[in-house]
Amino acid sequence: MDAEVTAGGGTAGTGAGDLSGRNVCVAGLGVSGPPVARALLARGARVTVVDGRDDEASRSVAAELTAAGAEVVLGATPLPQDCDLVVTSPGWRPDSPLLVRAAEAGIEVVGDVELAWRLKPADQMWLAITGTNGKTTTVRMLEAILRADGRDALAVGNVGTPVVEAVLPDAGGHVHDILAVELSSFQLHWSESLRPFAAAVLNVAPDHLDWHGGLEPYARAKGRIFARDTIRVVNTADTWSVRLAEEEGDPHAPLVGFGLGTPRAGELGVVEDLLVDRAFVDDPGTSAEELAGLTDVQPRAPHNVANALAAAALARAAGVRPESVRAGLRDFTPEPHRIAFVASSGGVDYVDDSKATNPHAAAASLGSYRSVVWIAGGLLKGAEVDDLVRESADRLRAAVLIGADRARLREALEEHAPHVPVVEVDAAGLPEGRTVMDAVVAEASAAAREGDTVLLAPAAASMDMFANYPERGRLFAEAVRRAL
What is the pLDDT of residue 2? Predict the structure, then answer.
C-alpha cells in the first residue's frame, strides 16, 4: 500500500447538461426509469419510455410520465425511430433485443449512473462504493460521517434516492455538495466516463453470474469504479478488491487499504479496540490517528467493522476530521434485517440477517457468532455452498432448512458437517394456521442451548417463498416474538 495519501481524484462531470432536441429512449419502467425520464425531460430531451410489462402499476406510472411530456410504450420494447441515445435500466442484460438493436445501429447505450455523472454540477464530489456485500451499510455509514463533519451530503443509489435525482436542483434550487454513491455491477457495466473522487470495492464473491457471464466479467464490472485520478480504497483481506485496484485503477492515484489487523503505513485498521488511520496523516510511516472505538460500530460484527473502516477511509479522503468519524458511526442506524438482534430467551439470542442473500454474506454473518443454530435456504441462483458449510462447520449447533434449494444445503451439510443435526421445514406439509416461520422458530429453539445464537442467514434469495428479503426477516422476527 502507498505510504502517503493526499486528496486527489476526478470530480467533474462531462457537463453534458443540454439535451435539448435529443431523442432519448428510456428502457424500463423500474426503479430508475421514471426519475431518468423526468431528468431528461427537464433538460429538454424528447423522451420515449418502453417496457415489456403492461400491468396496472406500469400503466399508473406511464400516465404520470405521459402527463409530464414523455411518450410511453407498454407491452413491447421497440427502438424508437430517430433515437440517438438509450438510457437502460441497470437490470437489462446486454443481450436484450432493444439494446442489441441499438448497438447494431451505432446508438450509444448508457445507464442511469452514467447519465447522472454527465448531468451533475462540476463541483459536486462523488464518493463511490461497490462490492458483493455491505454496500448499503457502508454508504449509510459514510453519509453519517460526512454529516457529522458538517458536510452537505446525501447517500444515493440503492438506498432510497436515485442517483439522477441527486444531481439536479430540487424545488428550492439546491444540489448536495457530496454524494455517497452505492453502485451495483449492473450500473458500473453501463458507465463509461464515471470518475469518482474516491471509490472502494468492499469485496467480490460470486453473484449475478448469469447476468455477467461469469465471475471474471462480474468482478471487472466492479473494477470500473476505479477510474482515472480516483483514490483507490481496497479491502486488504479481499484478493479481488486489491487486484481490481491494481489492474483497473489509475496507478498514479493513491492506494489506501483497510482491514481488521494492525494497519501498515497507508492503511486503516484496528489496534486493540480502536479504529486507526495510518493513511491520511502527516507522516504515515511514524504516526497514526485514532478515529473511533469498536464500541462505536453497531452491530460490532467483524464484517461490519470492515464496513466502518471503508466508510472512514472514503470520508478521510474527502478531508473529514478524525472526531467526525466517531460521531458519525455513533449516529449511524443500521438498516433492517442486517444482523439485527430480535430477542433473547433462556440464554439464546435470535438474530435476523435476512439480507444475507448469498453465501458470501452468510459466511460473514456466521463468522460473527461462536455457536449457531442456522436457518438457511431459498433460491441459491446457482451459487455454491460447499465452502460456506466447510468453513462454518465448527460453529454450527444445528441447521433448519427452508426453500426451493434446501436439498443442496442438506447435501453440503452431510458432506462437510456430518455432526450437525439438520431439520427441513416444508411449507406444504404444515397444518392449517401454522406459518413456515412459526415452524422454523420452533425447530430452531428446540435445538438451541444456552449461549447459542439462532441466526436467520439464508445464503439465498427469498422469492421462492416470500415477496422479498425484508418480508422474510419481518416474518421471522414476528414468529420469534410469538414464541417467546
Answer: 45
